[in-house]
Amino acid sequence: GTAEIGVTGLAVMGRNLARNFARNGFTVAIHNRSFAKTQSLLDDHGDEGTFVASESVEDFVASLARPRKVVVMVKAGAATDAVIDELVPLLDEGDIVVDAGNAHFPDTVRREAALRAKGLHFVGTGVSGGEEGALLGPSIMPGGTAESYEWLGPILEKISAKVDGVPCCTYVGPGGAGHFVKMVHNGIEYADMQLIAEAYDLLKQGLGASAAEIGQIFAEWNTGDLESFLIEITADVLQHVDAATGAAFVDVVLDQAEQKGTGRWTVQNALDLGVPITGIAEATFARALSGSVPQRTAALGTLPAHTTPWAVEDRDAFVEDVRLALYASKVVAYSQGFDQIAAASEQFGWDIDRGAMARIWRGGCIIRARFLNRITEAYERNADLPLLLADEYFTGAVGNGVQAWRRVVSGAALHGVPTPAFASSLAYYDGVRAERLPAALIQAQRDFFGAHTYRRTDREGTFHTTWSTDRTEQDA
Ligand code: NBP
């Protein structure tokens, strides 16, 4: 065969990815379970490059140059396993199977081990940027063997987004590292969206501002440190008018947020690793609360608020406070996400370069933002940085906004505006910087009821107090 890369699974994502390869000059083998999608791609876009279409998997595999590089872009889960099972007997040692769907990383770990045992490379790769990114340049996060990246890297980097000429694609690490990093990316996306939503609510309730007015504030924010895709689309959405009613579009949308599950995966994994990702967790639970209809119905008009209406006097000062609080909370959410990547990298032996992850998220993906440059720089200063927040740049940037952050969170509490992500991020900030935490009391309680032992501040060792008898301290 002659095709340099193949794509099987030609629904929206696979179709656009195949077109992206072709538009970048690669000869692309294309295949889909049902031929209609393959035919439609040829009919609509066959002139964009060189496509080699096959009806059968056998012909598809035969059309590929060796080592064969097959991108699988089908529904995550059982469909991905079915396609892999069909491909494997047709492949030869050294061939590369790339799963570009949204697999859960433990599935990728399992598939990679199974294919490695057969002498094949399996590359689980995160692809972010949705339909448009797939076509015009996504952020690409490939895992698997370093050897497979020697073959794939140049092709994937060519079709990825570019920022300042630098590709938004790099080798992430072995096994499930690529899909893991994509999962955390999505978790951070949840936190970022929730923080923006809380900022919008604060401006709405504090100022009584209209959606369009708040949209203009976001547009203004997008010219500074907060510049990002999510802030940009927020400004756009808030200024959009519903055609049917003439009302602000956001005011006619039902306030129940849905989710496909990557936020949940991120939080579940953080619980397994014991990493506090409070921003992502609050964001995931805030979506769940919004969808808790029976609870919301039971509470509405029933639970007393004991608040007074919020009438902010200095509008400009309040807007600036919310902006600073948003930035600080956002830094906390990212700092926590990068802690989670570090913990998994350590646990699974993936050796992930966190600065490189921030670099490939600067373009193509949903969380693309100006401030990711700052994260890359922080990890360049110190690759083993234990806490992103403690990097000199972020200490300064967040430190500048701490008083504003406190005013916003306390104001929200006083006036009954729910800001779970703002408030928990501030609590995290105060917790992580505390000289002494009440965890000492927890340890004492644990020793009291369960003889779980404790350590002391003044000498080495592990101790237990005989609480129920004479309360002497013993070496444990
Ligand atoms: P879908 O997730 O809707 O999957 C449809 C594709 O899967 C079709 O090509 C379908 O073939 C194929 N397929 C199924 Br379903 N079962 C199959 C089986 N047993 N054997 C072979 N093929 C099978 O497509 P999508 O929306 O393009 O998404 C593709 C992947 O990309 C998913 O994993 C998704 O989660 C991920 N995704 C990522 C982003 C992003 O921003 N990164 C966005 C959207 C989706 P058929 O045509 O014959 O039915």
TrEMBL record:
Molecular function as annotated in GO: NADP binding; phosphogluconate dehydrogenase (decarboxylating) activity
Domain 6-phosphogluconate dehydrogenase C-terminal residues, every copy: 178-468
Classification via PROSITE patterns: 6PGD
Alphabetical list of Pfam families matching this protein: 6PGD, NAD_binding_2
Gene3D superfamilies given in the database record: 6-Phosphogluconate Dehydrogenase, domain 3, N-(1-d-carboxylethyl)-l-norvaline Dehydrogenase, domain 2, NAD(P)-binding Rossmann-like Domain
Superkingdom of the source species: Bacteria
Record: residues binding NADP(+): G9, L10, A11, V12, M13, G14, N32, R33, S34, V74, K75, A76, N102
EC numbers: 1.1.1.44
Function of the protein: Catalyzes the oxidative decarboxylation of 6-phosphogluconate to ribulose 5-phosphate and CO(2), with concomitant reduction of NADP to NADPH.
Quaternary assembly: Homodimer.
Protein name: 6-phosphogluconate dehydrogenase, decarboxylating
Protein's organism: Cellulomonas fimi (strain ATCC 484 / DSM 20113 / JCM 1341 / CCUG 24087 / LMG 16345 / NBRC 15513 / NCIMB 8980 / NCTC 7547 / NRS-133)
